[in-house]
Design brief:
Elements (H helix, E strand, L loop, with lengths): L4 E3 L2 E3 L3 E10 L4 E10 L2 E9 L7 H13 L6 E7 L4 H7 L23 H12 L6 E6 L5 E3 L2 E5 L4 H12 L5 E5 L7 H7 L4 E5 L8 H17 L14 E10 L4 E5 L6 E2 L4 E6 L6 E5 L4 E7 L3 E2 L4 E8 L8
Parallel strand pairs: 5-6, 5-7, 7-11, 9-10, 10-12
Antiparallel strand pairs: 1-2, 3-4, 4-6, 8-17, 9-11, 12-19, 13-15, 13-18, 14-17, 15-16, 17-19
Helix pairs in contact: 1-6
Length: 328
Amino acid sequence: MTSTLDVGVLRAEPGTKTRGTVPADLGTLTVDIPLTLVNGAHPGPRVLITAGVHGGEFTGVDAATRLAALLEPGEVHGQVVVCPVANPPAVYQGRLGVSPLDGVNINRVFPGDPDGSPTERLAAWLFTNLVGGADAYVDLHSGGIDEVLTDFVGYRLTGDPELDAQTADMAHALGIEDVIFGMNADGGNSHAAAARQGVPAILVETGQLGERDADTARRLVEGLYGVLGRLGVLDTKPQDDTAVRAWVWAAGVTAEATGLWYPEFTVGDDVTEGQVIGHVIDPADGQEHKVHTPATGRIFYGMRGLTVAPGAELAAIAAPAPRDSGDH
């Protein structure tokens, strides 16, 4: 028999679905985190799905909301926790990667700090109340309002063969061709922090430029059904694995000057080390700064906003994974 599913003030008895919000104390204010708790009629794992970690990334928020409405407890083996807006200040007020509360990118500070800034406290709340109790985790992202992106799934290698195999299995069940993994689980990303805690976790990137596209959201829901089927949460026959292309992150390109950004690439382009991929022009004096790629590989996402400051991420490059890498 499944157990009661509790998150904060919300409770779902076995065989029921509960929707509502849970308050998260961020020190200077309290925010309401929307949640759907689906407590299945049959035993099984607990799966967490989050979206809205960043503002301006709409596909994941749309897909998570659709999935929450579709899931029926009688069909679920285990428990599914859906959080469609994990970072309300950034989603509703900022619509950018950083929070308007403190200028912090929450996906750089997981597992957070309960005594830190508001965003660090939010990361700690999400990690303690949601990630900590999960047996598997899917974090949904999209290309933001100034970001072009080609769909991919990401995860981190931990060196634990069983955990890495479980995570790769989840990644391959989504129906997305490109899978990019990091060679370790370092850093403040949600899926990396979860992996360090032994939770198989994947990052899903679909959609770009802050677009809201119903077909893209529906395809993502189908992919999530594939993951839930693969995990045994749903009786639906898992779809056959897409023939995936495995990649490893090679380099990020950041702006070194303030100015106007004129890219000379399209996402999906293959580039070689040293190639010029754009220019930053100073609007005051017209001085031009060439931007070179530091590595050979394929551009998976990039900046399409006109104005940039030093440190702004202009492009991210991945290279084909070695055949003896940890992808399964």
